[in-house]
Design goal:
Helix content: 10-25%
Distance between the termini: 97 Å
Length: 266
């Protein structure tokens, strides 16, 4: 019988400039992306033994060298135990230090000692344009550091947060986003953060080409507050107002002030 030899491979074709750029940006940004695993503590009624049961997974990214990690609030909303797996595959415990459920954002912190933490580069979202190229890095279905590429499909979308309030100014993208991508970064072609992947719109629950990301301008405004205060600090006057019906009955034109908070802004 005749001997069957392997076929001769075709000559290698140089990669395009766009491909080389994508490869370079992924290599630079991937070390900033982490995998997040959440567990629930289940206690056996008879033995009173407590076991940590896997609950879900998601993504996040390193905000600074102090060990702060940004992700979605819904990734860890019901978790009793949170573990973060870094780029070098080391898994460490994390604790929640700040949440903004109405924006689906949360900040975790790990002990930075002994870890080489690479903060993600920050971009801006106010000047994004429909059609510009974007990349998403995350852990869909537990497959760590997966890269998908697409474009900005639309701007100024609104999606509903876990609190029922609308998150406004959301970026829509066709970069494939699946369960497990939540909390991961959406990047521009220069590898800078432009959004936090937070949701998909799909009848099946898998990517259907419509994903959403909280814009980085919102993230960059809120995260420092979450780190410092643990919540979003909203402007307030520090006054107690009467109901408008009472003001109308008394013929008051405007607001009827009942009291002023001691030491408050007013």
């Amino acid at each position: 019988s005749s001997v069957v030899e392997p076929r001769t491979p075709a000559a290698k074709v140089p990669l395009s400039d766009q491909e080389n750029s994508t490869i370079e940006q992924f290599a630079l940004t991937a070390p900033s992306v982490v995998s997040i695993t959440t567990l629930s503590v289940v206690r056996d009624f008879w033995s009173m033994r407590a076991d940590a049961v896997p609950q879900g997974s998601g993504s996040g990214f390193i905000w600074d060298r102090g060990g702060h990690i940004v992700t979605n609030y819904h990734v860890l909303a019901k978790a009793d135990v949170i573990r973060v797996t870094l780029y070098d595959q080391r898994t460490v415990p994390a604790k929640v230090i700040g949440i903004a459920p109405e924006h689906d954002l949360a900040v975790l912190r790990i002990d930075p000692e002994g870890h080489r933490l690479v903060p993600i580069p920050i971009g801006i979202s106010k000047d994004l344009q429909v059609g510009q190229r974007v990349m998403a890095i995350g852990n869909p279905f537990g497959l760590d550091h997966s890269l998908t590429v697409g474009v900005v499909s639309a701007l100024d979308r609104s999606i509903e947060s876990m609190t029922g309030r609308d998150i406004r100014g959301v970026v829509q993208t066709d970069a494939s986003i699946n369960p497990g991508n939540s909390g991961g970064p959406l990047l521009d072609s220069a590898g800078r953060l432009i959004g936090v992947n937070t949701a998909i719109r799909s009848p099946s629950g898998a990517s259907a080409g419509v994903g959403f990301a909280v814009p980085v301008d919102t993230v960059n405004r809120l995260v420092p507050q979450l780190i410092r205060y643990g919540k979003v600090i909203r402007p307030r006057l520090g006054i107690r107002l009467a109901h408008q019906r009472l003001a109308n009955r008394l013929g008051v034109d405007g607001l009827l002030v009942l009291g002023v908070e001691s030491g408050g802004p007013a």
